[in-house]
Amino acid sequence: MNGPDNPGTIISFRGVTKQYEGDEAVLKNVSFDMERGKFYTLLGPSGCGKTTILRLIAGFTEPTRGDIYFHGKVINHVPANKRQVNTVFQDYALFPHLDVFENVAFGLRIKKLKQAEIKEKVLEALRFVNLAGYENREIHEMSGGQRQRVAIARAIVNRPEIILLDEPLSALDLKLRTEMQVELRELQRRLGITFIFVTHDQEEALAMSDEIFVLNNGIIQQSGTPTDIYDEPINRFVADFIGESNIVAGRMTKDFLVEFAGKSFACVDQGLQPNEPVDIVIRPEDLEITRPGEGKLEVRVETQLFRGVHYEIQCADGAGNRWLVHSTRKAEVGEAIGLTFDPEAIHVMRFNETEEEFDKRLEAYS
Ligand SMILES: Nc1ncnc2c1ncn2[C@@H]1O[C@H](COP(=O)(O)OP(=O)(O)OP(=O)(O)O)[C@@H](O)[C@H]1O
After folding, report:
1. Taking every annotated instance into account, which residue ranges of this chain make up the domain ABC transporter (predicted)?
2. Is 87's C-beta closer than 6 angstroms to any atom of ligand 1?
3. Ligand 1 centroid to residue 347 C-alpha, Å
């Protein structure tokens, strides 16, 4: 972590716990730093605390314990309207009785800006979201995607330093959603404002983010770039939540040698205790099909689905482990095949390893 005082850091949490009246804490001792101008995604299952983090940053609620920093200053008690932060809500929260112009102008009117200045800022914000010429439309005359853009224009019109987006794409159909993902990412780059985006959709998180924070049960499980998290998940939860994976129980015999599915395999991991129990992850695209007897694992094909770019093949080994394979090669249900993989394809995960310990271990490998 860079620290709240680092000039590039815009927002930091230190030991933040949030407990609503009488309940179990929904955020447990959360610490992180976010840098200016990046696209962050908070990713996790329903109820893990994503929206609570946004509400704390926006100033809609205060931490029970711990501190929130903005540019190195504690802002725990700074009211929402005094923060350089705007929110785009899931349902957009537009005013149905106001036209597009007035929806975007709303915050500026409250601040009592001059009419000429309001006009200039609103038109610029609408240009930014490709809605120039729509000023006088009523909200009910706008499509779902266009309403989304009005909500974003309203959030950027007074140039906040941070924009919070709480599942803003979840109401859109798949095609529009994909288009808006590209548009939002592009918009963030052009504006250079820090975006903090909430989703429970892992593909969306991988596609859009500079950095992802994976949350579960009020704890940040892992943070990093999409490739870091996909390639080196810290534990079973992250491996399972991000992409499809094969996760089996194993044992680290010694440095560079791991045992699972009743066999020993060369791997790239070191520095664990001899015979330490571990979880093993191998991604489906890292498994290659061989002729029977020529692979590292001998399996039988249970199901096969054609997915357009690859076949999705489910197999079982003699030890009862199931293996999911993505392959351009077809296999027959019931057929015996071999599976092979590189030592680098084996990801070894220790139990209860902290992010700091995990990062140190990976650094030692390189
Ligand atoms: N005002 C509140 N009072 C009491 N409990 C709350 C309040 N707001 C949220 N919670 C609880 O806190 C937990 C975390 O909620 P939060 O909305 O942060 O999760 P989330 O990850 O955003 O979930 P979702 O994806 O479903 O929106 C949930 O169990 C929720 O019921």
Report:
1. 11-242
2. no
3. 33
Beta-bridge partner residues of 41: 197, 212
Paired residues of 305 in beta bridges:
312
Domain with CATH 2.40.50.140 in the chain: 244-365
CA dist list (Å): 62 to 19, 20, 27, 28, 74: 10, 10, 12, 14, 12
Ligand 1, pocket-test mutation among 16, 26, 62, most atoms within 8 A of CB: 26
Q: Is 216 in the pocket of ligand 1 (CB under 6 A)?
A: no
Interface confidence, given as ipTM, is 0.94
Q: Which position has the token pair 């815009």?
A: 10
* Topology classification of domain 244-365: OB fold (Dihydrolipoamide Acetyltransferase, E2P) (2.40.50)
Which regions of the chain are under pLDDT 70? none
Selection from 180, 177, 94, 173 nearest residue 137 by Cα = 94
Protein residue with its CA nearest to atom 25 in ligand 1: 46
The architecture of the domain spanning 9-231 is 3-Layer(aba) Sandwich (3.40)
Residues of the chain with CATH 3.40.50.300: 9-231
User: CB of 343 closer than 6 A to ligand 1?
Assistant: no
At 269 the pLDDT is 93
**pLDDT the model gives residue 106:** 93
Please tell me the predicted confidence (pLDDT) of residue 23. 78
